[in-house]
Amino acid sequence: MADLTQLLENEVFMAFASYTTIILSKMMLMSPATAFYRLTRKVFANPEDCESFGKGENAKKYLRTDDSVERVRRAHLNDLENIVPFVGIGLLYSLSGPDLSTALLHFRLFVGARIYHTIAYLTPLPQPNRALAFFVGYGVTLSMAYRLLKTGFYL
Amino acid sequence: MADLTQLLENEVFMAFASYTTIILSKMMLMSPATAFYRLTRKVFANPEDCESFGKGENAKKYLRTDDSVERVRRAHLNDLENIVPFVGIGLLYSLSGPDLSTALLHFRLFVGARIYHTIAYLTPLPQPNRALAFFVGYGVTLSMAYRLLKTGFYL
Amino acid sequence: MADLTQLLENEVFMAFASYTTIILSKMMLMSPATAFYRLTRKVFANPEDCESFGKGENAKKYLRTDDSVERVRRAHLNDLENIVPFVGIGLLYSLSGPDLSTALLHFRLFVGARIYHTIAYLTPLPQPNRALAFFVGYGVTLSMAYRLLKTGFYL
């Protein structure tokens, strides 16, 4: 167990663990957000989900799409598309021995940008709020990927 | 190599590796499941996929959506949305030195809940079968995230 | 820090880090590809995204779907569905002490197959180009999962 304990005594890895936990938990909030819009607007994707509102033909009117629900789903998918590369590349970056201050800058910018992205998507704020939030997060991940491949690679 | 071997001698990490491999393999089964429904119902998303069924105008009638295909695709996306946080948070949780029995309880509940979720989605079973399966898996991941952030964090 | 340095001195892990960084960066390219098709074809999903093209009723005509945009989005989602299991299972596989040459064969085949999959999807090339690329990547991940569970598991 000595090695594992040492891993979490490494400050960069510890910071990565904290920010990753926060941003993955934020992403998970998109599921109840979708459920909230589905229930309040009575918009469902599956017949078995709206049985309590009416049976048979009567239930079919709830099987539709809604702008607010689709908006949350797009925000959720955009999170997946961007947080997956951050977690994968960020884990390897954290193990490659970067400066603590540089690593913290990357993690903080990414987490801040993705939280702002969600706010900008769901409010919605006028563009380019969402676009800028997207590009900051995107740039952080690319910067970590660049640093990783520069440190040395084995192909 | 000594450290790596030690990592896989750690029982919690070993259990995490096993359950993660199982649940990611289960998620991968959703791709052939989608292909099965697409082929048996002749429902395609791309013109090049249904060329063997007919060319030109004749092929266009296969470019449509189908309830069963959309159902499998929703189940697949729901897997992605929930298994990604489990793998990311679970990896860090496994390295934070939890009790073996507590960790096993988390991993087993999650994997069981997600397998049941897929069965409930594809059968489909009446609600709240799928909702309960979803919330068990969701709760397990949040519980690991809470434990991680309580163990100590670096922001 | 000694352990972390040792981790990146392990050749298999180093190779995994390089190939994962490459394939996750490739997946990230799907976002600007989607944006490119959205802007050149003037096809948007959100009203706030096309405000510069016209306000109010005039903007609504840009809120539509387009075959090219949907094609890139499907390719992106297929990447997510396949690269997530590769990264998760591949990380654990890399830590399980495989032969360097076997591991390299897995990583190279997967990365090559997924790059070819994207080319086949976006060109589009006639089937079975895309299907074969999909199955090569799928088989590589399953082969790593099999090797992992065979090495020993803890349930």
From TrEMBL, chains A, B, C:
Topology of the protein relative to the lipid bilayer: Multi-pass membrane protein
Key words of the record: Acetylation, Endoplasmic reticulum, Membrane, Mitochondrion, Mitochondrion outer membrane, Transferase, Transmembrane, Transmembrane helix
GO CC terms: endoplasmic reticulum membrane; mitochondrial outer membrane
EC number: 2.5.1.18
Compartment(s) where it occurs, according to its Swiss-Prot or TrEMBL record: Endoplasmic reticulum membrane; Mitochondrion outer membrane
Record's catalysed reaction(s): RX + glutathione = an S-substituted glutathione + a halide anion + H(+)
SUPFAM superfamilies: MAPEG domain-like
Broad enzyme group: transferase
One annotated GO molecular function: glutathione transferase activity
Any one of the GO BP annotations: glutathione transport
Bilayer-crossing regions: 12-29, 83-111, 131-149
Subunit structure: Homotrimer; The trimer binds only one molecule of glutathione.
Function: Conjugation of reduced glutathione to a wide number of exogenous and endogenous hydrophobic electrophiles.
Family: Belongs to the MAPEG family.
Identification of the protein by name: Microsomal glutathione S-transferase 1
